[in-house]
Write a structure and sequence with these properties.
Largest sheet: none
Mean pLDDT: 96
Order of helices and strands: H
Oligomer: single chain
Helix content: over 70%
């Protein structure tokens, strides 16, 4: 095997490794974004409930 063949082979291995790593990172990113979206929705629902409770307490306070 010549030096050029060796380096071409090494380059191909590196490209394959990086492509696999890229796929894994993209899948991980997708999972994290989905989780973030779910947490944002939960946070908004919780905030709405707290705001509703505050309004009810203020209404009771006025009575």
């Amino acid at each position: 095997m010549t030096k050029l063949e060796y380096w071409v082979d090494e380059l191909l291995k590196t490209c394959e490794r990086l492509a696999k790593e890229n796929r894994l990172l993209r899948a991980q990113e997708s999972e994290l974004l989905s989780g973030r979206e779910r947490l944002t929705e939960r946070n908004e629902r919780a905030r709405d409930r707290v705001e509703a409770m505050i309004m009810r307490l203020k209404a009771l306070e006025k009575n």
